[in-house]
Amino acid sequence: MTLGANAAIAPPMEEATMPAFEELLALTAGAVEDMLRRLLDERFREGEILRPAHLLAAMRHGVLNGGKRLRPFLLLESAALFEAPGAAAMRVAAALECVHCYSLIHDDLPAMDDDDLRRGQPTVHRAFDEATAILAGDALLTYAFDIIADGETELPAPVRSELVLRLARAAGLGGMVGGQALDLRAEKEPPDEAGIVQLQAMKTGALIRFACEAGAIVGGASAPDRERLSSFGAAIGLAFQLADDLLDLTATPETVGKATGKDRAAGKATLAALHGEAWARRQLKGLVSQAEELLEPYGEKAAVLRQAARFVAERTR
Amino acid sequence: MTLGANAAIAPPMEEATMPAFEELLALTAGAVEDMLRRLLDERFREGEILRPAHLLAAMRHGVLNGGKRLRPFLLLESAALFEAPGAAAMRVAAALECVHCYSLIHDDLPAMDDDDLRRGQPTVHRAFDEATAILAGDALLTYAFDIIADGETELPAPVRSELVLRLARAAGLGGMVGGQALDLRAEKEPPDEAGIVQLQAMKTGALIRFACEAGAIVGGASAPDRERLSSFGAAIGLAFQLADDLLDLTATPETVGKATGKDRAAGKATLAALHGEAWARRQLKGLVSQAEELLEPYGEKAAVLRQAARFVAERTR
Question: Is the pLDDT at B17 greater than 80, yes or no?
Fold first, then answer.
């Protein structure tokens, strides 16, 4: 199994145009989707009594939905920097995507964002029912730790343990779930600027940061390298959110393919709204430079990650 | 730190009366509650950005509720058989209780059992709101894996990995969550006897079985010992469910302190309802004998676990 991306494309990446990068992203997304499909098939696994078909169908609906698989992509590309074993990196990437998808299923619930559609398809609680959507999310979150801790993820046990710990921290009370809780309260009590930064670092930043750091962990990178990738992840996590805010602020529904102005309508303060479009674009530029600088020690090997940073900042949908 | 139970009480346990056992259970519950209180305090932990106070309060509400802590008790007593390090066993026991409590929070939600009270207190979605209850459950489930994988749980990394894997299997799609999904469908399509057995083995059995097996894993027990404790856990898991069914069938609300006849009212088939009270009592007796036989190799050291088996089968509330 190739690790995808880096290995799959021979010509110098710096010269590649953005469409080429998007092709690469799509190629990796396909490989991740294959792995997810295999992990969510109907065969029983050791230690399981039964995989209830109905629940599994809901999990598949929430996961196999044509997502961009940006987090797995970042994980796989970070892992490739350190010549990590590709099969193991792919399993960890799939586990990370399970966590991301569980969070979308729960976020879409009537008690949360109450969304009927995601990527043009009915959300899980619409396609099934609310109880099944809650359980499908729970099962996906649980399964992520199963996948990583499993000996089939061929990494030394201390590495698997470390990945479980870091994923749990990134996803939990002090990370993604905590950020979601802050976001719910933000609708009633608008946070100040520091509060917005904190909320976003938790809600969307923590998992993107984990993606990049996890690649280094899977690859057995040194502590400074791990720290470097973690900082890279933090920078593009910020860029990801800022680009999102900017799209909400400036794009039309026609160009992004979904409703815009949702943040404004919900009374949610964003940094882009607070400081304006020009400021946000300057910030984004700064974050991309910062991300690129962090990758300097890896030279040409990090070309795809550099493109990823630009892609995240410049995306138009 | 003593492991509690076994160490704390000197006189021969076989002679102890049931009230003495209940005291022992309560003593351990206090120690588990202390650990949970410490794990859910307001200090940040490494790798966390912030612990949102509101979400943490909801988690505490769902966990620090005076539960019997039966699963942690079984884990600690199983661990004591193999002279496991007490502090590590206590952390794993607390993690297991986090998973149990998360499942109660989600089960109580309007979309599931729609319960307003648990142990005489408002359920989490009543005391807070539905979105916060969903997130508190998510955060507790995630935190359980954090606690186990953390190096502060002083066990070799392969043991921590194995515990994460077994807990994820017991709690997930092929275990507790899968059982809950089957239970939801059982209201519409009543399962046959084999279906009921399977549902219960997943919904309540898997976590009780894990409790006993995990004790052996924490204690570094041999594979046959691990298998033996796992079988013990399976037997008392069955007994636990059967005793529960029997209470629902025969007890009055006055004696059990909660509504009875709920299974019948919900049209849920139980084995006790299917075969009658006399059959259920015979079965329970058989399960206790089977559980006691499984503990034979451990002699007096397993006295408390033998009492636990009887307690589970004979409980009147």
Answer: no
